[in-house]
Write a structure and sequence with these properties.
Helix content: 40-55%
Order of helices and strands: HH
Number of strands: 0
Distance between the termini: 73 Å
Oligomer: single chain
């Protein structure tokens, strides 16, 4: 929420509660703001997050097989 002096503060998260409404009124709330991504960013963000998770999963799988091979490898004679 923004105060009359332009400061951004967040004393409570739900303006629908009576106690929160009273707190906001005491602070002189003048406006509210939120930072949101537009709807057009949804799928690109999903694809980037999926790519990162797949890369991490691949690296962990590779590391697990390397450790498994090292600890249970066949005896060389």
């Amino acid at each position: 929420m923004l105060t009359p002096k332009g400061r951004a503060e967040a004393p409570c998260v739900n303006g629908g509660l009576d106690s929160c409404r009273d707190t906001l009124a005491d602070m002189g709330a003048t406006a509210f703001y939120r930072d949101l991504h537009p709807a057009s960013h949804y799928w690109p963000l999903q694809l980037v997050a999926t790519g990162i998770l797949l890369a991490v999963a691949g690296l962990l799988t590779y590391a697990a097989f390397r450790v498994l091979r090292r600890t249970t490898g066949t005896a060389r004679g």
